[in-house]
Amino acid sequence: MPTSNSAGRGHDNPVFVHQSLPESIHALLRKRILNNEIPAGAPLLEVSLAEEFGVSRTTIRAAIRGLQAERLVEVTPRRGTMVTRMSETDVLEVCFARYLLESVALRVLSPKDRRLLADRMDVVVAEMGSCADKGDMAGVVEADTSLHRQIVEASGHPLIVDMWSSLNGQMGSLMRSALDRQQIGLREAVGMHEQLVTAFREFPRRAVETALHEHYVRSERRKS
Questions:
Q1: Phi/psi of residue 48, each to 5°?
Q2: Burial of 130 (0-12, 13-18, 19+ CB in 10 A)
Q3: First to last CA, the chain
């Protein structure tokens, strides 16, 4: 068993803190997949991973189940576990659902509310930019989730937040799939969010809703 300060020989050697062993291994494998260290189509072999981390295959299976729930891997009886990407149809569906929920949240915000929200979003975009500069796709995903969560939380409606949060588990897979298909880099993804923040700060509500639609739906259809 790896100790609290050693794991994943030859890689990041992350510190496993306040997580179960399967959760820690899941987090590391997730980061490798999102950062394309393990590309689409690559197999995840239980025996090799168990040897690398010094854990049982049962622990590896538990970690893989988490990746499967996030649609980052596909598990089939004969082929085993393969890193996968979301289909274009699935990406469009998730994007449209997020757009609908965020546009509803937007409608209850005053111009002053939107400007204050934009200030908070700016902080997250700066963090996203820092992650992009380091090539940290997993960090960009976390920042994206945080930024868009602020939009739905600003509505003051917990049910909308809960509905929106139910889609979070697939955001890593969605962003990795979308960037691969659109052939854009992390820095360009940051720029798209900078444009969205500008819209929230400066545009009237209908124009902000159009910008949000462009961010989620039109850009995805145009580049697919």
A1: -65, -45
A2: middle
A3: 44
| Sign of the dihedral through C-alpha 209, 210, 215, 216 | positive
Q: How far apart (Å, rounded) are the C-alpha atoms in residues 4 and 1?
A: 10
What DSSP line would sit under the chain, residue for residue? ---TT--STTTT-----SS-HHHHHHHHHHHHHHTTSS-TT-B--HHHHHHHHT--HHHHHHHHHHHHHTTSEEEETTTEEEE----HHHHHHHHHHHHHHHHHHHTT--HHHHHHHHHHHHHHHHHHHHHHHTT-HHHHHHHHHHHHHHHHHTTT-HHHHHHHHTTGGGHHHHHHHHHHHHT--HHHHHHHHHHHHHHHHHS-HHHHHHHHHIIIIIHHHHH-
Q: What is the pLDDT of residues 93-122, one digit of tens each?
A: 888 999 999 999 999 999 999 999 999 999
- State the pTM of this model: 0.75
Predicted confidence at residue 78, as pLDDT, reads: 82
Nearest to 175 by CA among 130, 129, 220: 220
Amino acid identity of residue 193, one-letter, is H
In order of their start, the domains of the chain are: 21-83 (1.10.10.10), 88-223 (1.20.120.530)
Strands 80-83 and 73-76, by their bridges, are antiparallel
pLDDT band of 18, cuts 50, 70, 90: low
> How far, in Å, are 61, 72, 172, 186 from residue 19 at the CA level?
16, 20, 20, 28
